Amino acid sequence: QVQLVESGGGLVQAGDSLRLSCIASGRTFSNYNSGWFRQAPGKEREFVAAISWNGGNTFYADSVKGRFTISRDNAKNTVYLQMGSLRPEDTAVYYCAAGTTNYYLANSWHYWGQGTQVTVSS
After folding, report:
1. Exposed (0-12), middle (13-18) or buried (19+): which is 28, by Cβ within 10 Å?
2. With 90 as the cut, is the pLDDT of residue 10 above it?
3. DSSP symbols for the chain
């Protein structure tokens, strides 16, 4: 089992930046691909970004490409999501995930955090 705990969410203004963190415990985190998803009220959970187990490959949704950066520090069992140029449409609960063979498909991920709220005001 892998336990994931997100932090760093909050209320910001459009154009601001925010960094989310996800700390893992349990099984060896460095063995797992990791990712971020988000879910806005009334919408399905959607892929945001993912990173391979060794950090060598990253993947982004078109809506965040060029604005968000995913990274990881396996020595700290932590994955980050640096978010810049935030927009009101980025408002959602952001979830950390670990363990998948299909980065883009939410139900392919094995482990999930509880989520952290990000609200971007206009």
Report:
1. exposed
2. yes
3. -EEEEEE--EEEETT--EEEEEEEEES-GGGS-EEEEEE-TTS--EEEEEE-TTS--EEE-TTTTTTEEEEEEGGGTEEEEEE-S--GGG-EEEEEEE--S-TT-GGG--EE---EEEEEE-
Rounded Cα gap, residues 71 and 56, in angstroms: 10
Q: Which two tokens stand for residue 21?
A: 């963190």
Reading the block at residue 100, the tokens are 């998948």
Gyration radius of the chain over CA positions: 13
46, two tokens: 């959607």
Q: List, for residues 21-49, the tens digit of each pLDDT value.
A: 999 998 788 889 999 999 999 999 999 99
